[in-house]
Amino acid sequence: MGGLAARVLRRLGQSVLVLLVMSFVIYGLIGLMPGDPIDLMIATLPNITPDDIARLRSLHGLDEPIWLRWWQWLTSALGGDLGNSRLYGAPVESVIAGPLLRSLMLIAASLVIALAIALPIGILAALRPRGVFDTVANLIAFVGLSMPTFWLGIMLIMVFAVTFGWLPAGGVPQSGAGVAETLRHMALPVATLAVATIGQYTRYMRAAMIESLNQDYVRTALAKGAGRWRVVLVHALRNAMIPVVTVLALDFGMLFSGALITETVFAWPGMGKLIFDAVMGNDYALALAALLLATAVTLLGNALADVAYGWLDPRIGRGSKAP
Predict the structure, then answer these.
(1) Cβ contact 7:310 at 8 Å
(2) Cross-strand pairs, 84
(3) Contacts of 30 (CB under 8 A, 6+ apart)
(4) In the chain, N or C terminus with fewer CB closer than 10 Å?
(5) In sequence order, which ranges of 32-91 are alpha helices (DSSP H)?
(6) Residue spans per domain, the chain
(7) Which of 284, 283, 279, 271 is nearest to 70 (CA)?
(8) Domain 92-317 indexed as CATH 2.60.40.3880
(9) Environment class of 286 (CB within 10 Å of its CB; exposed 0-12, middle 13-18, buried 19+)
(10) How far apart are CA 112 and CA 84, in angstroms?
(11) Residue 99: partners with Cβ closer than 8 Å, 6 or more residues away
(12) Residue range 37-79, pLDDT digits in tens
């Protein structure tokens, strides 16, 4: 347990350092974007003088070096002040709260459904490679991987919202709506994200399981009389899950900030759409906070994956190589 705690603390320290560096990188990149707040203000005030512009830049600190502006922002952020959103006219933390919750709801539901379907299919396909079930599973996985997300979302809307009228075409439930209504609004975007990832996880699970089943320790366990399903689910599956956990950790961060197409198709106001609107609207404070939050979620996913490696194969935590 002590080794696991030290591993977690080390990963958290590395994540904090990476997040600090990324905050400066993102701040610098946003600062290079054309059209800072003063430029936008100048566009609405044709009679403004150069002296007024200089005073405004000095008032907002835009005449200072970028590293000093970043440090001032960082100290304010550590104190709980992320600034105000220009687009929404409200503190950044209050603007992010709603989209953050909605994105986490979509991600959690879609990943649970995708893994619940993909992992058993991948395991069963690996038991008889090139068999009938394996061929059908591969075909379905390739179809899922080949379908564009926007097309799949539109098709689901056409079938379940327009043709049958079973589910809402998009949007979020009204405030105070019950659990059933919330699930109805989530059904189509969750299904879109799940179908888009089922094929990927199925392929990874199948490949990793085939490799694990061909290892010496599996043949040894079978030779000693261990049951086939015990060998598959206890011995082989733990090692086969390691590459799947790696992909899952990377996908978690990508889905958090990159589900823009799905959120746009279904008018679901999550983090992907929020980041896009903030960048396109030159809302510096909101874009910076949202991008850093997406970075933090990605780092958290990788840290949790690293901890999961030690649970799946304790030799990894001790510095040994997995078979």
Answers:
(1) yes
(2) 91
(3) 284, 287, 288, 291
(4) N
(5) 37-43, 50-59, 66-78
(6) 92-317
(7) 284
(8) no
(9) buried
(10) 35
(11) 269, 270, 271, 273, 274
(12) 666 666 666 677 777 667 766 666 666 777 888 888 888 888 8
